[in-house]
Amino acid sequence: MKVPRSVVFQSSTILVLIVSLTFLISSSDLSTNFKLPLLISPSSADRSSNPPLRVYMYDLPPRFNVEMLGYKYSTAPNSTNFPLLPRHFGVKRQHSVEYWMMGSLMVEDVDGLEAVRVQNGDDADVFFVPFFSSLSFNSHGRNMTDPETVVDRQLQVDLIDFLKTTKYWKRSGGRDHVFPMTHPNAFRFHKDQINASIFVVVDFGRVQENVSSLHKDVVTPYVHLADVYPNDDPPDPYESRKTLLYFRGRTIRKDDGRVRVKLAKLLDGYADINMQESRPTGSAIKASTKGMRSSKFCLNPAGDTPSSCRLFDAIVSHCIPIIISDRIELPFEDEIDYRNFSLFFSVEEALKPDYLISKLREFPKEKWVEMWMKLKNVSHHYEFHYPPVSGDAVSMLWKQVRHKLPEVNLAVHRNARLKIPDWLKTR
Fold first, then answer.
1. At what angle do helices 393-417 and 97-104 cross, to 10 degrees?
2. Are residues 358 and 265 in the same domain?
3. CA 280 to chain centroid
4. Mean pLDDT in runs of 10 for the chain (427 residues)?
5. Which of 129, 196, 326, 374 could lock 341 by a disulfide, CB 3.0 to 4.6 Å apart?
6. Model-level pTM?
């Protein structure tokens, strides 16, 4: 059969092109001759290198923050005079995340920081509001009927009035503003007026879903009261910890914490369980630290809200946490799998007679050692430092704030271009 001349010509042309292309590829740099389409946009590539989060921190008068620590300032503190947290700060220390986040933005000329302060809000990714709302609650009349609460209320009113005059709040409706509020009663009077913002909270035990949620907010650890345990390297860690299960704290609690008194009755009388009623005094914290360091497992039931500081004391003490709280939310859980170094029991399981204790006694030594080693490897993520240290709790918190930015930016940009009321909210 005779092949048409046009087909022969087309085939010859294709062959010549292939040969020419092969020559070009072999004799020159492909990237200089061909502009291939980018699979990743330049902006995405830049984000993958993780430059520090750019944070604008408002220069609030000292009455909103450091003066509550007992220091006197005429103007907002700076990198040269930022105060140290008082060593003997008692139980208030567990709610001091606000202090550590503020302090992390005071540091200058340090490489490897997760967040850096910018002086111009136009350059910022987020806006940090350094109001010590938890300390304000603890300092200004903890009882709602106490006359001192007027101070806490007025601080909240003054702060909101100020923020609403700023162009950055007006631009975003506060969505890109970060408020630490780790005490469940922090910002108790006017929290609903800032509920579009990013809250840094320990859990969601006493808030309504339209005010605070896992969707928009960041879960933080409590600041540990127990000292860190840097030299925990015994030849046989399992045998060196003589107590099977340890708990020291208050057993009479409200709400989710009612499980504590039930557990105390259920676990009473076992020789290898140390469960003591105690208040968080200085001597009690020292005793608790010693007890956790000498125990294989540490009991962590809910407090008045689903979480408690005790969990993070156990972590820095390298005591395997036994978590009994059905509604607990945990910090950094998108990066850390707590099942690698913790055991979880529902309240129903924990209250079955002999169920919990039998599970712990049957737990294999080899598995315990494996979990203990993993716990040691992650415990630095729950330590608070000033100046901040790479990978510490504050660094992890700023990473979590960064994770919220895509949705924040979506909401800000979308609302800025809408010409009618948000139609999605009417569906």
1. 80
2. yes
3. 23
4. 46 46 40 33 44 96 95 89 85 94 91 93 98 93 77 96 97 96 92 95 84 93 95 96 95 78 91 90 92 97 88 98 95 97 96 95 98 98 94 97 94 86 65
5. 374
6. 0.85
